[in-house]
Amino acid sequence: MSKPEPYTIVIGLEVHVQLAAESKLFCGCSTRFGAAPNTQTCPTCTGMPGTLPVMNRRAFELALRTAVALDCTIATFTKWDRKQYYYPDLPKGYQISQYDLPFSSAGHLAISDSKNRFAPKNVGIIRVHLEEDAGKSMHDEHAGEADSRIDLNRAGTPLLEIVSEPDMRSPAEAKAYLDELKLLLTYLQVSDCNMQEGSLRVDANINLHLDGPDGKKIATPIVEVKNMNSFRAVERALAYEAERQYEVWQETGQRLGDVPKQTRGWDDTANVTHGQRHKEESSDYRYFPDPDLVPVTVAAEEVTRIREDLGELPAQLRKRLETTYGITPYDSDVIVNQGRELVHYYVELADLAGDGKMASNWVQQDVLRLLKEIGTDIASFAIRPWGLSELLQKIKAGDLDTTRGREVLADMVASGRDVNAALQHLGIERVDESALVEMCRQLVANNPKLVADVKAGKMQAAGAFVGQAKKLNPNVNPGRVREICLELIAAG
Amino acid sequence: MSLAELSVHELLAELAAGSATALDATEAYLAVIAAHDAQVGAFLRVDAEGARVKARAVDARRRAGEPLGRLAGVPVAVKDILCSKGETTTCGSRMLEKFAAPYDATVIAKLKAADAVLIGRTNMDEFAMGGSTENSAFRPTRNPWDLTRIPGGSSGGSAACVAAGMAPLAIGTDTGGSIRQPAGLCGITGMKPTYGHVSRYGLVAFASSLDQIGPMARSAEDAATLLEVIAGHDPLDSTSVHAPVPPYGEWINQPLADLKLGLVREHFGPGLDSEVDAAVREAVRVYESLGATVKEVSLPHSKYAVATYYIIAPSEASSNLARYDGAHYGYRTDEQAMLAELAEERKQLEAAKNERGLAAMDTALVRMYRRSRSEAFGSEVKRRIMLGTYALSAGYYDAYYLKALKVRRLIRQDFDRAFEDVDLIIGPVTTSPAFKIGEKADDPLAMYLVDLYTVSANLAGIGGIAFPCGFSKTGLPIGLQLQAPPFEEDRLLRAAHMFQQATDWHRRRPQL
Fold it and tell me: ipTM of this predicted complex?
């Protein structure tokens, strides 16, 4: 925070996540993205007369998994409600959703920043509920034209709505919440969280709290920001919106309640939000329980079983890596954020190499770089932890230095050779200690000028010995060369 | 004796014995239809060719010794509210006049699997909303006992077609009495099964928590056979129940011993026609003569049933009918005319410099919805959509819909308590015999009261059966209603059969 603002930003987020269920929430149609329009539809998800919804238990379990991971209270009894409005991409004229009895409520998600831009905190989760997605429509309503195209492939896809408390106090916190939520969902394997394909959508509610002239706290009108197509966009839109609201407040003095809640869309190219057309804001959705569906009951044993099956989640993993392997929060964050597979890789490597910090450095600096270069993921990376750990152990033993180690790893990746074969191929072998001492003795004898420099306290001259030694034999351990030379000079 | 006069049981025996063919039976019924339906108007569409094709196929399979379904060769008429793949299903509405369903309703699939001959689609009140079949967008149906009178509704076409001998069996649906009331008024046997006993999949919804499909027939015995075919749990209907489907047709001959009947005090108040009152009391005496005991029971909340029903049913209807928006299927307004209308409005508003009016103008989409729904729904459907929309609106929901749900629970509890003392509840189906066509057309409230004795069963989710127990001096059938605890269809059918073994009201046929 560079300059202190005269206000506090208050942000709550509504995140819609498509669940990675193979079939839709209330029929058997596929949910695969990208199929030709209206090819993944049936009488039920196109709202044909007489059709009835049947709940997809698998989707409900994915939803439960998410809510349990968010520490929500799971309702023992939950029901489905109809949210009614007219839109061409909503073929039944209502969306099956959950209104007053969502299947879960009152959870939280811990967020922190490895760069310490804000203090770690828990963001409250008001509720998580399940609903069906609508289809997609592209249409041109203006100038009396009514040219509309509707694709109902998406209609009925299970959608989880995760509503946070207004607990975030900066755009950075909002972004951290989204990053952490996405990571959690990825760990849980409940969604692919692909924002481009619409698997994850974010709406933000934002307003400002500031001190009024009489010293009393004032809240500005809440604005809902939509149309944000990346987490970066969320961060930028909220930063923009906070400044805009402050300006509006200075101009108008409008407070919460003075004007109806406004919806604004983020324009990612112009970097501004635009007020969206005021549809009748107080839209009445006439929610009522869907008589075609029976309430869902969830047994305590089921919640327990789901909790036990969750596996270690990102927050727990970070802590374990820090305590077990002695790495910094920053390092554990980088590793955990890469996903469960990389964490497994790291843990195995650290255990085999017996050095968590070294393993962390190699994973972050080399493995991740190589994955990027090759364009693969950790699961299909040819160098398994035991292969890399052999290399790390040789480096630790002083058989070769880190630089040569990288050459070895590159050769292993390129050729498929194991460590020893790669060492042999590159002609890398441990230099015998007596030979090394002999080489250093000659270097000291042949370089009186450098010796004088060292004696005069110019320690960088010692580096020149290392350079010369490496020219004579690329396998020498630079640290050891330096040590021996300094000892010889001191002794001589 | 014509094949069209046989009971289903007798017809199946003839067909099995080879003394008649399914085609003979089908032709016999088609002949009755040809002779009388121009007067009665029971059918919206008769599928003579389809019926003959099916009948011939059944006959061929019978000759080849192949196994056949339970209703092989028996003509069945179906209310025009069940979807059948590739066929028109209008629901008696302009909205669906040209709608062809892309799939089979579960009951249709079961009838097809049972080798029934689906002979045609019967008339009904639009979207099953009404008690006289006068709300059909296409034609009225007349009561075969008196062509100036209504057949009841909303399954009036099904009731009239069975009464007139145009089909031995028909499928009806009952949301507030729409099977039992027309059955009573047409002198046939009609049953509303327990909610959840017959799958609603493919039944175009009116009020989802009340709708139930049921059999309509000339006797309890025939109805039993049809129920056996259509009942049972369906994974496609979440509200269908895992309840056994006993061989109703076989068990029906077993009389009920020590039958305890309950006469509902509240059913015999003012407004009950004296002839109906007398016929019902006489029916009670018939049961007593068969060994039944009768006691008075009370359903104290039944006086709220019609009011409760007219909150819940329209609320659900307002939601269920939202899908008919002109966007996806069904009726759509003339788009050119609509755009011209909008352009004209815009021109006038612009000329008047009416900024406010311009800002409030419908988009083309909204105008398309508005015109499509205004043009294609009839007035009763619109009335109920408005009632339901109002009842579900913010600020009214608690006072109407939520309160109605609470009363509904009390009505169910009344029945639970009553059934602690009695096996069945016995009483009238309607306050009076069939009224004249047009008599109540301008009085929706009077029309709603025709459901007085039947809606409670829908609200409670229990089963009921109606069958004739006498005739008025003017020759109109008078119906008797039995109601049973949930999933006691067997008890209803056996009790009705006992009565029909002892009386012959159900054997009387109208002169056409």
Answer: 0.94
